[in-house]
Amino acid sequence: MASLLLFNPENDLALAANSAYYTPPAAAVRIRTAGALLPMWFARQGDYILAPAGMEPQAEQMRAEYNLYGKIFTPDAVSEIDRCIPWGWSSYAVQTFIKAGINPGILPDSKKIDLWRNLSHRRTSIAILRALSFPDLPVEAFSAEEALLAVESFGGEAYLKFPWSGSGRGVFPVTVSGSSLRSLAESSIRRQGSVIIEPKYDVVTDFAMLFNCEDAEARFHGLSMFKTMAGGAYSGNIIASQSYIAENIGVSPRELEILKRSLEEALTQCVASGYSGPVGIDMMMAVRNGKRIIVPCIEINLRYTMGFVAQAIAQATNPINPSLLHL
C-alpha cells in the first residue's frame, strides 16, 4: 500500500478559519502550486503526491536527478492509498483528501482534528516555555486592556501575535502607546478568542529544532537555520549540513544537547500524548537587556516546516557551500 502526500502551506490560515470549506487567498494558492512537489523529499517507494497532473515531467526529472520517489496521484490509484500525509492537518486538509477521492475512514476524525488544532494554538508555546522554566513567559490576553498591560510589563515594546498564524504572519511589533495596538488586539480576540503578547528581543540568529512525535514520545530529528525579514516574516531556510548549522547558530554543543533533551521532555509532556507527526520549534539566539540568551520556543509548528525540507535536500545533495531555500 502507499501514502498520499500533500503540500498545503496555507494550513495555518485554515486552522485560524476553522472550516473544512476554507478558501485560501490567491497568494497562498501560488505558494502551494510552486511547492507542490516538495513532499517528494519525504516520499517512499510507491508513494503518491497530490499535485497538478501537469507536474509529472518535473517530478520525473526530480526522481532521476536526486534518486527520489513519489508519483503524481491520479484517481485510478485511490485503491492503493492507506495513509495520507499532509504538510499540516486541519478539517480543511481532511476535506482536500476527501475531494481527491480518499476514503474518509483512513483520515483523522473531527475529534482528533479539534485536538490537534487546539495544540497548534500559540498557548502551547507558552506551555513549552513554562516546562523549560524560561523566565520571560508570553502573556495570553483576553481583552485589549490585558494586552496593553502586558506590553507595558515588557518595557513598552513587544510583539502581538494572533493565536493561529505562522511563518511570521499574524505577528505585529507594537508599543504601549501604539495607536494600532488596541484595534489589533480586539481584532485577534474577536476572531480567535485571545491574543498573545511576547517580549521583544534583538535577534542574533534564527534557528529551529525539528522533532517527530510518535507513540506518545517526542524524538529529536535535526537542526534548522533560517532567515527572517525585519518584521519577523520567514524568508528562507539554509541548506547545509547539520554540522555547519550547529557550528553557526552561536550555541555551544553542550547547550544544544541540553536544549534538545529538555525539549524532547517538554514536547512529550505537552504535545506527544495527543499528537503524532512532525514538529518544528522555532527559537533564537538573542540579546535582551544587554544579555545574550537562547529563547527556546518562539513558535511551535505541529506540521512539516521548510526546515524538514532543507534537511532532506542537504542529506540528498551533500552541498559544499550553504544555500538559501525559499518559495
Notes on the protein architecture:
The mean pLDDT is 94. With 327 residues, the chain is an alpha+beta fold. The protein starts with a strand and ends with a strand. The strands form three sheets. It has a six-stranded antiparallel β-sheet. Strands 3-2-1-4 form a four-stranded parallel β-sheet. β9 (202-214) and β10 form a beta hairpin. It has helices at residues 11-17, 26-34, 56-66, 91-99, 110-119, 123-131, 144-153, 181-192, 242-248, 253-272, 306-317, and strands spanning 2-6, 48-49, 71-72, 81-86, 139-141, 157-161, 171-175, 195-199, 202-214, 217-228, 234-239, 277-288, 291-301, 323-325.
In a nutshell, what does this entry contain?
The chain is an alpha+beta fold and 327 residues long.
Task: Tell me roughly what share of residues is in helical segments.
Answer: 25-40%
The helix/strand order is EHHEHEEHHHEHEEHEEEEHHEEHE
**Strand order of the biggest β-sheet:** 13-12-9-10-11-14
Contiguous uncertain segments of 5+ residues: none
Q: How far apart are the termini?
A: 32 Å
What overall form do the CA principal axes indicate? Answer: globular
**Largest sheet descriptor:** 6 strands, antiparallel
Fraction in beta strands: 25-35%
Total helical elements = 11
Structural classification: alpha+beta
Radius of gyration: 20 Å
Write down the overall mean pLDDT: 94
Number of strands: 14
